Amino acid sequence: MVILSDLVLRDVPRVLSIAGTDPTGGAGIQADLKSIAALGGYGMAVVTSLVAQNTRGVRSVHTPPPQFLREQLDAVSDDVVIDAVKIGMLGDVATIGVVQEWLERVRPPLVVLDPVMVATSGDLLLVSAAETALRELVGRAHLVTPNLPELAVLVNEPTAKYWPTALDQAKKLSTMSGSVVLVKGGHLNTERSPDALVGMYWQPGGVDGGETFEVITPRVSTSNSHGTGCSLSSGITTVMARTGDWTRALSETKNWLQDALVHADELQVGQGSGPINHFHRLWAKARTLPGNQNSRMG
Length: 298
Fold this sequence. Notes:
Layout: E1 14-19, H1 28-38, E2 42-47, E3 50-54, E4 57-62, H2 66-77, E5 84-87, H3 93-106, E6 111-113, H4 131-138, E7 143-144, H5 148-155, H6 163-177, E8 180-184, E9 192-198, E10 202-203, E11 207-208, E12 212-218, H7 228-243, H8 246-262, H9 280-287
Parallel strand pairs: 1-2, 1-5, 5-6, 6-7, 7-8
Antiparallel strand pairs: 3-4, 8-9, 9-12, 10-11
């Protein structure tokens, strides 16, 4: 069991995203930084892969040398106290190995792993040889946030078509890894969108929080959901680093994400699956400030 023992809560936690890029800004490290900022954290970024993609799909992936990844990680941790780490795309065995070694050496107090394997478009983002190494890394994370296809890969089962099956698979992964699992129902063909924390988790003061906590929201009718998984996991990381409360982290982030999806169509970015509206609440509030109504920036 991966236990939170060294987490020191901060009003503005310093959150490091280790992930790949998205030039159109909707997913990957760009989405992480937006989500961290929107939910009250200070975002930092270490790039694992340079991805040539847009809202319509992935074109190619370039992975920098492992030594350069190590230098990025050390440059941050040698200078900044890191309160939480969110890990996204790790494209190969060497990349996973560098991150694993750094985690064991630096031991950040909160680690959330989003095991990115398949893009929303269906493009494969993780080479098959790295699956075993990624499974080992799962055991180092406090929280793991796979989508349903990724969850199925991690437990060697077919992709769940129904929510009870997804919960069962999440329980298996939690038992295997010792980590809490966030199982996400975004891929289900249902009117409502469920998400659940599965596994033994602790609330403030070391109180046993139970084994399953669900948050269910209405499904938003939009094709602009690019980067939803990245944003959810980095948002939870940030709120957890502020509050130390897993259930609050999921509830607060899901509420924010629902709003970001409702207003996603307003952005009009790209011709495919566009991004969510990370800063809708901030921009809406800014527009109500004195002197800003109906104003234009010139």
